[in-house]
């Protein structure tokens, strides 16, 4: 059974490019800009390629990779950078998961509200 994944965005230090999946063009411009800055700075810091990917359950994960033989890629730095971003951008990443689950998976969690 093949798992369904959806790439939110990616950046490459090799091609000096950022990619945002067109399916997410409905995100506010500020969020799209923040994703671009976050991914591009990631590749500038550690090299390689970074992708933000939703799994079939709507969990957002970072995926990093490097070309074989890229001795400048900082593998340890990439792990540390991912942990740093998960901590510093926790609210953004959580809201993106909620957005994905609601818009793409059709899930709706009723929030308890106090009036």
Question: How would you characterize the overall build of this protein?
Answer:
This protein has 115 residues and is α+β, with helices and mostly antiparallel strands. It has helices spanning 29-46, 75-88, 90-103, and strands at residues 6-12, 17-20, 49-54, 60-65. The chain has a four-stranded antiparallel sheet. Helix 1 runs antiparallel to helix 2. It is globular, with a radius of gyration of 15 Å. The chain starts with 5 loop residues before the first strand and ends in a 12-residue tail after the last helix.
Question: What topology emerges from the helices and strands here?
Answer:
Elements lengths: L5 E7 L4 E4 L8 H18 L2 E6 L5 E6 L9 H14 L1 H14 L12
Antiparallel strand pairs: 1-2, 1-3, 3-4
Helix pairs in contact: 1-2
Summary of the model, kept short:
With 115 residues, the chain is of the alpha+beta class. The chain contains three helices and four strands.
Label this structure with key terms:
40% helix; globular
Summed over residues and divided by their number, the pLDDT gives a mean of 92
Q: How many DSSP H or I helices? A: 3
Morphology: globular
Largest sheet: 4 strands, antiparallel
Could you tell me the radius of gyration in angstroms? 15 Å
């Amino acid at each position: 059974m093949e798992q369904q994944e959806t790439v939110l965005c990616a950046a490459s230090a090799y091609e000096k490019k950022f990619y945002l999946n067109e399916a997410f063009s409905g995100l506010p411009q500020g969020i799209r800009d923040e994703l671009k800055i976050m991914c591009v700075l990631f590749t500038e810091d550690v090299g390689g390629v970074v992708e933000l990917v939703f799994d079939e359950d709507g969990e957002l994960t970072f995926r990093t990779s490097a070309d074989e033989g890229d001795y400048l890629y900082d593998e340890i730095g990439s792990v540390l950078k991912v942990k740093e971003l998960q901590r510093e951008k926790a609210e953004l990443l959580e809201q993106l998961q909620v957005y994905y689950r609601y818009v793409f998976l059709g899930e709706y969690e009723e929030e308890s509200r106090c009036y």
